[in-house]
Design goal:
single chain, about 140 residues, alpha/beta, Nucleotidyltransferase, domain 5, 3 helices
């Protein structure tokens, strides 16, 4: 007598559909509720022209060209002597400010170094981009 074994097609399994639904819902929740940090930098926007006419003295022009050379009122100086030159000029006109004109090809490190020195010495500073083309 031969015994017949019945082959079982019904195997125990885990239904993964509900688990995948929960995983996708959690993923969407974390993406929507996540906050992104904002980066801070130098403000390149031009000031308004509403108060352009005033009794202010002409600002001291500090230029940085594409080769990272520094000019104060169109005279080339060494970057290490910048604060000494500005201190001498500000001693004559203490209410003066500095206009920092930066070329697009200048090094970011040089611009930030000069900006930090000016703000550390509490010298009023305005920043603008140089739109002149290289010749």
């Amino acid at each position: 007598m031969r015994r017949r074994f019945r082959k079982r097609d019904d195997q125990a399994g885990v239904n993964m559909t509900a688990m995948l639904d929960i995983a996708f819902i959690l993923l969407i929740f974390f993406i929507v509720s996540m906050t992104f940090p904002t980066e801070e930098g130098i403000d390149w926007r031009q000031p308004d022209a509403t108060g352009a006419i005033c009794d202010c003295p002409i600002p001291i022009l500090v230029q940085i060209d594409g080769d990272n050379q520094v000019f104060v009122d169109r005279d080339r100086i060494d970057i290490d002597r910048l604060m000494a030159v500005l201190d001498r000029i500000l001693a004559e006109e203490p209410n003066n400010a500095v206009l920092l004109e930066v070329h697009d090809e200048s090094s970011h490190g040089v611009v930030v170094r000069i900006w930090d020195e000016l703000t550390a010495n509490r010298i009023p500073t305005s920043l603008q981009r140089a739109w002149e083309a290289d010749t």
